[in-house]
Amino acid sequence: MKTKTYAGIPDEYAKLETSKIVLIPVPYDGTSTWQKGADKGPKAFLEASENMELYDIETDSEVYKNGIYLTEPVTLNATPEAMVDVVHQETKKYIKKNKFVTIIGGEHSVSIGTIRAFNEVFQNLTVLHIDAHADLRKSYEGSACNHACAVYEASQNTNLIQVGIRSMDVQEKSVMDFDKTYFAHEIVTDDTWMDSAIDQITKNVFITFDLDAFDPSILPSTGTPEPGGLFWYETLEFLKEVFKEKNVVGFDIVELCPNENEKSSDFLAAKLYYKMLSYKFQNQDEEENYDDTYEESNRLGNYLKFDEDDNY
Ligand SMILES: [Mn+2]
Q1: Distance 1 CA to ligand 1 centre (A)
Q2: Superfamily of domain 6-291
Q3: How many angstroms does the Cα of residue 52 sit away from the middle of ligand 1?
Q4: Predicted local distance difference test score (pLDDT) of residue 76
Q5: pLDDT at residue number 167
Q6: Which residue ranges of the chain lie beneath pLDDT 70?
């Protein structure tokens, strides 16, 4: 799949050594239960990205100049457990190189591996889970690495904040922390939810963004579209505030299930990704020399958990 750079950016901005950002595509769709096709998500996302303007008006920036290295896609998918394991290893490998690591799925079980990697590295991690679905099942259809279980592990060992939820099974109530859940039907009438959610986020936050959190009117191409979702500008307003107030350590975007006849979802995903990067890097000088070797002092306030002999 990888014949080009991310978004067709010039090679000088796409080298691993000098890139601050790493993008890992995970074209995986092993456990989705309804519409298949999330394995085609990364390719559609990358194609849409090539057709997008790389200057961001709002932040007055060209974030790609910080360097975005596109890795080979993670294609190992013999079992859901094996996929999660390799995603975990790959993600951690690039965090360890001091990169800002981002992942494009694939279905949501991919995030079990990404969250595990970030949680092993960053202390007091918040996982900000933006999704239509609670994804809190301990296991589903015989596996704990099912998309319906995407944040069960995070619910047990991170500070999990859930936003946009409007579909769940009754048994998930026993796992859910209702004080840290912002249901779609509540946020539509409550304009204090953003401040409340941000107050509950610790300094280090990883964002796992399931695209079905968006309203299907603006993002229909996803495996399980649910009515009553988030809209573009309110989502950006929230994300912008999170990036401003907190230390976002990385993010993933999952569940794009492309449709040949409907390209706007692909484009929304591409734009969302670029917006999030733009918010992350808007105040950083892209010309500043970048040191890609792991050094604790480079990670101002990131509180790495790595042992010195951790072998990556
Ligand atoms: Mn979902």
Answers
A1: 26
A2: Ureohydrolase domain (3.40.800.10)
A3: 26
A4: 87
A5: 98
A6: 1-3, 32-33, 285-312
In the reported structure, the alpha carbon of residue 60 is separated from the centroid of ligand 1 by a whole-number distance in angstroms of 32
pLDDT tens readout for residues 77-94: 889 999 999 999 999 999
pLDDT digits (tens, 9 = 90+) for 34-85: 777 999 999 999 999 999 999 999 999 999 999 999 999 999 888 999 999 9
User: How far from chain centre, in Å, is Cα 174?
Assistant: 26
- How high is the mean pLDDT of the chain? 92
Angle 213-121-212 from CA coordinates, rounded to 5°: 10
Cα 230 to ligand 1 centroid, rounded to whole Å = 13
CB environment 183-199: b (16+ within 10 A), e (fewer): bbeebeeeeebbeebbe
Sign, CA dihedral 271-277-280-284, equals negative
Residues lying with their CB under 5 A of ligand 1, a single-atom ion: 131-133, 210, 212
Q: Report d(CA 149, CA 31) in Å as an integer.
A: 11
C-alpha torsion sign, points 293, 285, 13, 125: positive
Under DSSP, the state recorded for 106 is S
Q: What is the rounded CA–CA span in Å between residue 107 and residue 84?
A: 11
Q: Is the distance from CB of 29 to CB of 23 less than 8 angstroms?
A: no
Q: Where are the domains of the chain?
A: 6-291
**Secondary-structure percent of the chain, ordered helix, strand, coil, rounded to 5:** 40, 20, 45
Query: If you measure from the C-alpha of residue 135 to the centroid of ligand 1, how many angstroms do you get, rounded to a whole number?
Result: 7
Angle CA 14–209–56, to nearest 5: 50
> How far away, in angstroms, is 133 Cα from ligand 1 center?
4
Radius of gyration of the chain (CA): 18
Decide if 249 contacts 122 (C-beta within 8 A). Answer: yes
Query: Tokens 């790609």 appear where?
Result: 64
Beta bridge pairs of residue 183:
165
Q: For residues 132 and 219, what is the distance between their CA atoms, to the nearest angstrom?
A: 12
CB 280 within 8 A of CB 59: no
